[in-house]
Known about the structure:
Elements: E1 9-17, H1 22-28, H2 30-34, E2 42-46, E3 52-61, E4 67-75, E5 92-106, E6 118-131, E7 141-150, E8 155-158, E9 166-178, E10 188-199, E11 214-222, E12 225-227, H3 231-250, H4 253-271, E13 272-274, E14 277-285, H5 294-325, E15 337-338, E16 344-345, E17 350-353, E18 356-360, E19 366-370, E20 374-377
Parallel strand pairs: 4-6, 10-14
Antiparallel strand pairs: 1-3, 1-5, 1-7, 2-3, 3-4, 5-6, 7-9, 7-11, 8-9, 9-10, 11-14, 12-13, 15-16, 17-20, 18-19
Amino acid sequence: xxxxxxxxxxxxxxxxxxxxxxxxxxxxxxxxxxxxxxxxxxxxxxxxxxxxxxxxxxxxxxxxxxxxxxxxxxxxxxxxxxxxxxxxxxxxxxxxxxxxxxxxxxxxxxxxxxxxxxxxxxxxxxxxxxxxxxxxxxxxxxxxxxxxxxxxxxxxxxxxxxxxxxxxxxxxxxxxxxxxxxxxxxxxxxxxxxxxxxxxxxxxxxxxxxxxxxxxxxxxxxxxxxxxxxxxxxxxxxxxxxxxxxxxxxxxxxxxxxxxxxxxxxxxxxxxxxxxxxxxxxxxxxxxxxxxxxxxxxxxxxxxxxxxxxxxxxxxxxxxxxxxxxxxxxxxxxxxxxxxxxxxxxxxxxxxxxxxxxxxxxxxxxxxxxxxxxxxxxxxxxxxxxxx
Length: 388
């Protein structure tokens, strides 16, 4: 397959609609009872632009054959999206789309009041076409194609089912080209990143160990359980351990045993989680791609992590310096002026606004910078916002 006809970012899912949770069925009451309670798990929410976005969950076999839940995001106007109005659980469907890492928040790791939880990035599948399964398509599964550049040295970890096998996780920077009607509407291209994992014994897997390599990848959608780490995880585990120590000193007998079981379940739930990724089965290097050994990749990863930490500290220092340099100034309000016709022009008080913008450094990482305070008249249509 040549570069021209290889999909840069494409996924095809052959699965069936998941059943809505019991609490959603109970909320709909008599309507659910009349329909047998077999509706598909579809939910609609509003984004920041007040646009309606629908999410539907599909049951799709993972590479090992066991089914897993894959959420799909569907925008209005996607061909075949009208099927969602009458979708029932266990109806087979074929979904085509693309993949992209989006910001997500896990509220399980919230510790204090006002804490939103753990902020991370999770792969989202956006549908571009939905259709029923034909008579020839009697199988279920998934296929994914990605072409792009390796963004960072990988993280190596052991296979949770085979401790002697190692997996490597990294991200691929690619482009999305989409238009609902290419002949009439413009084709919009955007940069996206796709998370991928590969077993280290896969042929040419070492091409994914070097950042900057351009590769063509083919694989399947999977949801492996992996260990979670980071400041938010440690903070939540520390709070859980402290609560358990207090429980051990205040309870005995059967209540203590039940509390211990709940503590172990909660700790395991916080330490392990599964997220959608692309499990790579085929790696094809493009011009200039060079392999890297695991030891060299581990060294490069440590240097990459140190560089990210240095850049974060520098951005924090720049924010602090910018905030210290820009004190808020008070502006006196003038007295109203009276014209010869007796009409008064009342001067509105000046409003101080602090403008923020996103600055992107040479490393591609973005951070908040605080600009000089902007003074404008109240009620003026200057378009300034503190979140710009």
